[in-house]
Amino acid sequence: MNDDYLFVYGTLQRGLPGSRHELLEGSVEFLGRGEIAGRLIDLGSYPGLVKAVSAGQRVQGEIYRVRDTHALFARLDRYEGCSPTCPRPHEYRRVLRPVMRDDGQALSAWVYEYIGPVTGGRWIPGGKYRPRR
Fold first, then answer.
1. 3-class DSSP state for residue 125?
2. C-alpha–C-alpha distance, residues 105 and 20, integer Å
3. pTM, whole model, 2 decimals?
4. Range of the domain at 68
5. d(CA 24, CA 6)
6. Residue 59: inside a domain
7. How many angstroms separate the CA atoms of 40 and 10, rounded?
8. Which of 1, 40, 51, 74 has its CB surrounded by the most CB atoms within 10 Å?
9. What does the pLDDT look like over 47-104, one tens digit per residue?
10. CA 35 to CA 46: how far, in whole Å?
11. In this structure, what CATH number is given to the domain that contains residue 116?
């Protein structure tokens, strides 16, 4: 059996004000923190991960082993607005990307990549999301 992994970097993380982490509960096992190549843009009440434009651009987040792939991704695709029933154009797409755990282990994890417009957003230095107060 192949394991599926999920990398979250924004409002799905544990313990953040306004977190929607409850969407993950019962379907995942927390493995630890990690990072992924990319840049983070602040879109107001949530962030978006976009591809890196230079080496060294990293986004910090949490890594989970997925227990119930079908149910979880159906739920998260709706939340992220990229399920087949959501209106187009979508802001996000779910893709497999290489992720590095804090313990140095590399794995391939599903991540929601932002594909909407970046104009009007603010780049988050250091790639670590913290909600606005």
1. helix
2. 27
3. 0.94
4. 4-120
5. 10
6. yes
7. 9
8. 40
9. 999 999 888 999 999 999 999 899 999 999 999 999 999 999 999 999 999 999 999 9
10. 18
11. 3.10.490.10
